[in-house]
Design a protein that fits this description.
By secondary structure, the protein is an alpha/beta fold. The chain folds into 2 domains: 43-141 and 239-362, Periplasmic binding protein-like II (D-Maltodextrin-Binding Protein, domain 2); 143-234, Periplasmic binding protein-like II (D-Maltodextrin-Binding Protein, domain 2). 42% of the residues lie in helices and 14% in strands. The protein is built from 15 helices and 10 strands. The chain has helices spanning 14-34, 74-81, 84-87, 103-108, 119-127, 169-181, 199-202, 216-222, 248-253, 255-274, 276-287, 294-308, 323-335, 347-350, 354-362, and strands spanning 59-64, 90-95, 115-117, 132-139, 144-149, 164-166, 190-192, 208-212, 227-231, 241-247. The relative contact order is 0.19.
Length: 363
């Protein structure tokens, strides 16, 4: 469980503490969804997730969100709000996540139809024998990054040498590989495990720390702490954020249901891209957990847009995913010793483009 640390930073006021506490919680959700997590617990502790009774002729979908409800899932909620689910005759139930939510196990056990992960998490799922497949990606540019103070920016891997960097152990493995590839000595960087607690950055205990740019940076900005962002994808680790996952057999059996759902999500996220401020207002008023700040959610929504529309989304459309990104992550995982050299992992079995291709073709 994360605690917000009280520091001696001269401008670290109570209002900022609360903002940073929210950053820690939001960031923790991104790590859980990514599969980084020692925080997972058994799915049996979660309670049953089943879609609410819907109208006659409507198909039910249970989607286990990667964290508590907020604008980071704005496109999902806009698919509901703007009628895209109705057009596809879908009755969708979104279950909020939390630090103890075992996303992959909930899907692999059949208790949720859909949840979220990322390429790293899918590799871990393959190692564990979970029968999962990725079929779409919300964030085309991975928001995962090393955040540093604007006054002392970390602009490259070389800038990490001699510094203290806070990050999860799985990300440490990635950074170590990337530094070796760049001819740098990772032993000259002091890595400390800090989860997603932004107060250590503000208080100066770390020079940089890992989180999502779409959640942590807006909160730090509102808290009055200027930042610099070094994306993982810009230092050799391309990835996606919020990769949609399902059981392989369910997807094969109910393929058209997944196509309809993906098509509706394309509509919802397209609406958010065109109307980020309005999306934030609607989410705060109708979907988000109580106490969400409209200013913070609005800045997050505006920050999210370029991550959703980056890369292949410009030419192929929203929610696209490329198996080559998963291949690149597998190579890093092997180099980091996270995947045994003799362990075969079939990327074609882990990811499919068929659903998103069909969703765009019909749409």
């Amino acid at each position: 469980m994360l605690r917000t640390m009280e520091t001696a930073h001269p401008s670290f006021q109570p209002g900022r503490r609360e903002a940073l506490r929210r950053i820690g919680l939001a960031g923790l959700g991104t790590l859980c969804a990514a599969g980084v997590g020692s925080l997972w617990v058994r799915a049996a502790q979660q309670g049953a997730f089943s879609a609410r009774e819907g109208r006659s002729g409507f198909s039910a979908i249970d989607h286990q969100l990667g964290w508590t409800k907020g604008v980071q899932f704005g496109g999902d909620f806009m698919a509901q709000e703007q009628g895209f689910f109705d057009r596809e005759k879908l009755n969708v139930y979104y279950a909020a996540g939390g630090p103890g939510t075992d996303y992959r196990t909930l899907v692999s056990s059949g208790r949720s139809l859909v949840s979220e992960s990322n390429p790293q998490g899918m590799i871990e799922a393959a190692l564990q024998g979970q029968p999962l497949v990725a079929f779409a990606a919300i964030y085309q540019r991975d928001p995962g990054c090393i955040i540093s103070p604007a006054a002392r920016p970390i602009r490259s891997l070389r800038d990490m040498v001699g510094r203290t960097i806070g990050l999860p152990n799985s990300i440490r493995g990635q950074i170590g590989v990337l530094m070796r590839r760049a001819g740098l000595d990772a032993d000259k960087v002091r890595f400390v495990p800090v989860g997603s607690d932004a107060s250590m950055l503000v208080g100066g205990q770390v020079d940089g720390y890992f989180n999502w740019a779409t959640t942590a940076v807006p909160s730090l900005t509102i808290a009055g702490f200027p930042t610099h962002v070094l994306h993982m994808c810009d230092i050799g680790a391309p990835s996606y954020g919020a990769v949609l996952i399902a059981r392989r057999d369910r997807l094969e059996k109910e393929f058209e249901l997944f196509v309809r759902y993906t098509r509706a999500l394309i509509g919802g996220w397209g609406w958010m891209v065109a109307h980020p401020r309005e999306t934030a207002r609607i989410v705060v008023e109708k979907y988000a957990d109580p106490g969400r700040s409209l200013a913070e959610q609005t800045l997050q929504a505006e920050t999210i847009v370029p991550y959703v529309t980056a890369g292949d989304a410009r030419t192929q459309g929203l929610l696209w995913l490329d198996p080559a990104i998963f291949e690149a992550n597998l190579r890093i995982a092997r180099d980091a010793g996270q995947v045994p050299a003799d362990r075969r992992i079939d990327i074609e079995h882990m990811v499919t483009q068929d659903v998103v291709k069909a969703a765009h073709a019909v749409g």
